[in-house]
Amino acid sequence: MKENIISALEKVRTNSPLVHNITNYVVMNNTANALLSLGASPVMAHAIEEVEDMVTIASALVINMGTLSKNWVEAMITAGKKANEKGTPVIFDPVGVGATAYRTTVATQIITHSKPSVIRGNASEIMALSNANIKTKGVDSTQSADSALDSAKKLANETGAVVVISGETDFITNGKDVVCIKNGSPIMTKVTGMGCTATAVIGAFAGVEGNMLEATSAAMAVMGICGEIAARESKGPGSMQVNFLNQLYNISADDINSRLKLSYE
Amino acid sequence: MKENIISALEKVRTNSPLVHNITNYVVMNNTANALLSLGASPVMAHAIEEVEDMVTIASALVINMGTLSKNWVEAMITAGKKANEKGTPVIFDPVGVGATAYRTTVATQIITHSKPSVIRGNASEIMALSNANIKTKGVDSTQSADSALDSAKKLANETGAVVVISGETDFITNGKDVVCIKNGSPIMTKVTGMGCTATAVIGAFAGVEGNMLEATSAAMAVMGICGEIAARESKGPGSMQVNFLNQLYNISADDINSRLKLSYE
Amino acid sequence: MKENIISALEKVRTNSPLVHNITNYVVMNNTANALLSLGASPVMAHAIEEVEDMVTIASALVINMGTLSKNWVEAMITAGKKANEKGTPVIFDPVGVGATAYRTTVATQIITHSKPSVIRGNASEIMALSNANIKTKGVDSTQSADSALDSAKKLANETGAVVVISGETDFITNGKDVVCIKNGSPIMTKVTGMGCTATAVIGAFAGVEGNMLEATSAAMAVMGICGEIAARESKGPGSMQVNFLNQLYNISADDINSRLKLSYE
Known about the structure:
Three copies of one chain form a homotrimer.
Chain A: H1 2-15, E1 18-22, H2 28-38, E2 41-44, H3 51-56, E3 60-64, H4 70-86, E4 90-93, H5 101-114, E5 118-122, H6 123-130, H7 149-159, E6 162-166, E7 170-173, E8 178-181, H8 194-206, H9 212-232, H10 237-250, H11 253-259, E9 262-264
Parallel strand pairs in A: 1-2, 1-3, 3-4, 4-5, 5-6
Antiparallel strand pairs in A: 6-7, 7-8, 8-9
């Protein structure tokens, strides 16, 4: 797997895939910067008048419902359908699903109509997606990642998507295989939009690598390794955000070789 | 008061109150990061379809009209009414009130229909709120904080809210008592959204402490102390923003004990 | 020209011009911070109900169509017309024009109805504006700046605006004269919204200096010099963003005197 991750990162830097993001207001700046730092080319566009044109020239579509509203949901679904038609991977981040009835309804609509290739959430979100009885508290997880693994497998099998549970250990599953990544740092949870950034970074890898389990594992490995290197020199969440972007720009094959903690469940 | 501030900070870190923000596009990232750094749990949600559900699970609601528009104002008022019904504190930031007729109208609507527990603004904004003849220049204050104190007391008495005037000295009043805090640094005015961040931080303290004068004083004290520590090591506004978040994460009882400059008017 | 740049910077810091921005979600925070760091006073407001009032008290209007949608475009045009009426300079950033048909249509509408004093884009955008056959890839340029110079001159002559092509060399033309600035650093392209920040900074200079060729040249010179100083001490794009804001705050006449690489074509 190490070689695949290194080669996928190389492909992102060489091909600079255009990643079309329909995402939330809170993280737009971070995720654009993360994609640029990594070597990809971000574009944010949500007008119903142009999302089909934009996704047509993109290598991946990232849909993030963090600050959703009616017009944006329409654009997400319209763009998602076009991406499906073109065979362009759709990466979906169901931020806060389970916190309100509206989020749960919208997440279901997006999964139904925009057929995501990858779904990434925290444990609460993944559990809420496959079981309407789970309540989430706002956008932060109240569940541990491993408690959500069965839900993730079920969701993967039902939707055909690779499902990622972010947490102290990240779990990535296609419903059968499970990849575990133990990189990262607790301070990542104190920077807003780190999960959303992971979803955008998956978009970059999915734009250059056809195997979604591999693309997603590579993205999560790079996130975790950059996070743990950045954390070493960070006095707090402010520095962490800055150092993390620097690491996405500087991460090397050596960093991956020496630090990757990847296993199969 | 020192003990109250330290214990309120401790409660924010232990309880991690969910703070529901309906705020402006410019500062969403900063205020989410400030709340996370402090130990609270931010959520940003503005869709009319979900604001009532979201505020129902929140410990405080922050309404900030920095980049207002029709749909957002509806959501602010709807969420505010639900918060009132639930007894959840509403913190209101009337950004730029007085700069345009629309802002003045909306601010009045929000105060009328969402009955804020706390209103925070700069001197120009507080004066504009209690006297329609004052004009503000965009979103930055043209008035000194102490010149607005009578307006603040009047506004507090009329609305029942604790009113904060941010400035070189912060004044916090319930219409009768006046708390003065002289912490902070001039460079805080060169970082966008520091006032909005103060409002969000008040939300976190109001979510754990029932006495609004104490909650608000604690929040403003923490803002000022973090600001002055961060300023010492900042070469400019860029570093200031980063160091400030680090300080919210790291501020200790010792910092508060040794630095607090609080008095009563 | 050096003396003009230094004196224009001094005027920005002394007069603190109010710059009204109707801009995109991705960069609002950066551009507000850049304007504050430079000494200007930013305001972001897009509600149709207030843009005319707001632009009336502003010294410049910045229109940036990075994350455009129907209501925002209406506000841009309404504000632009009022600015024209008042003789307030309009600075236009046609982000991503050429990437979708919608962006091309909107850019043409804005140029027609809001008569910009300055148009700033990358090479692809400037070429797309004066020739509908050029396709851009998202929001990053696929063309070199000098290849777009003829398009820029043509656009300047057709619209009466000063046109800026940002790139390794920045070209600024009124259709006849061409100013070239060779300051800056390649890492500026790895920070999102650096182009948008340039446009906002032009707004600040245009708010204090009536000659648009001089105002724009001064703005681009300050951007480039701050960028190259910031780059020296930046480990990556994260630090670059922070250091750049610090430099806007700290740039001195000496920095301009010793570093400016300005010539006439």
